[in-house]
Design goal:
The structure is a single chain. The chain is an alpha/beta fold and 253 residues long. The chain has a single domain, classed as NAD(P)-binding Rossmann-like Domain (Rossmann fold). Helices cover 44% and strands 14% of the residues. It is built from seven helices and seven strands; from the N terminus they run βαβαβαβαβαβααβ. It has a seven-stranded parallel sheet with strand order 3-2-1-4-5-6-7, sandwiched between helices. It binds NADP nicotinamide-adenine-dinucleotide phosphate.
Length: 253
């Protein structure tokens, strides 16, 4: 057994979480901080929420979090974000590609801009963040971990989310290809959340149906998604290229 085969204790590890100011990304950042990880909190528009998440991470971990801003639909800004991380931390141990766009459109109304908005963040940015992260990991010669947030929408077909479905199915297959490309030192896995509601977003058209169709008859919690992310981050390199649905059984066919 070599160091690269070992489990990956999170204490002291340098982990970038994209879209970490709010909601699921915030929950992942807090769970990492509670394990003693050093967290880089990426945000785009949610500057105040990012600062609050950073304060909470500092309290939980005792480490000073790194706050990084980038419009992830612009690859040049992704490169600049990783340069900030390199100069602050001199490397990176793990990446959680969490940031995403989710929109509902009638299939005949989807424009090129709608398609690009979703794919640029959900798929293109996830790829370029993984590429930059892996370069940092390889440059330092340390084992690495990448977790991509996919979705139930990458496993199921939804008539009013064709563009989102395509992007998240892409994330799942990209996870498999990257797992081969980055083996053996860097694992790449994916978590596919089911229905994780938040008060501030109106899920009224889907929530009732989603819960009643869910075998366990309830919506999911942020902590349950974060647990799955931390499972992949902590695991030895024998688990790679996998997607774990955290969906109360909704994706079972
Ligand atoms: N919530 C669910 O039920 C559910 C279900 C299935 C899958 N998921 C997946 O789980 C992950 C987290 O879900 P969520 O609902 O917490 O996500 P979310 O709130 O919709 O988005 C997370 C963050 O992504 C960032 N983001 C969006 N566009 C960006 C851009 N162009 N550049 C930079 N950042 C951008 C935003 O950061 P700022 O706020 O800073 O702008 C946002 O806060 C996503 O990958 C999502 O697809 C969620």
């Amino acid at each position: 057994m070599t160091a690269m085969d070992d489990a990956f204790p999170l204490s002291g590890k340098r982990v970038l979480v994209t879209g970490a100011a709010r909601r699921i990304g915030r929950g992942i950042a807090l769970a990492l901080a509670a394990e003693g990880a050093r967290v880089a909190i990426h945000y785009s528009s949610s500057r105040n929420e990012a600062a609050e998440t950073a304060a909470e991470c500092r309290r939980l971990s005792g480490h000073e979090p790194l706050l990084v801003h980038a419009r992830l639909d612009q690859v040049a800004q992704i490169a600049a974000m990783f340069e900030t991380i390199r100069s602050a931390w001199n490397g990176l141990d793990a990446l959680v590609n969490n940031a995403a766009r989710f929109t509902r459109r009638n299939v005949f109304d989807i424009t090129e801009a709608d398609w690009d908005e979703v794919h640029n963040v959900n798929l293109k940015a996830a790829f370029f963040c993984a590429q930059h992260a892996a370069r940092l990991m390889r440059a330092e010669g340390v084992p690495g971990r990448i977790v991509n947030m996919s979705s139930l929408g990458g496993l199921q077909a939804w008539a009013e989310h064709v563009h989102y479905n395509a992007s998240k199915a892409g994330v799942i297959h990209m996870t498999r290809a990257l797992a081969k490309a980055f083996a053996p030192d860097i694992t790449v896995n994916s978590v596919a959340p089911g229905f994780i509601p938040f008060e501030e977003r109106d899920y009224s058209q889907t929530s009732e149906g989603a819960v009643s169709r869910t075998p366990v008859q309830r919506a999911g919690r942020v902590e349950e998604v974060a647990d799955a992310v931390l499972f992949f981050l902590r695991s030895a390199n024998y688990i790679t290229g996998q997607t774990l649905a955290v969906d109360g059984g909704l994706s079972i066919r």
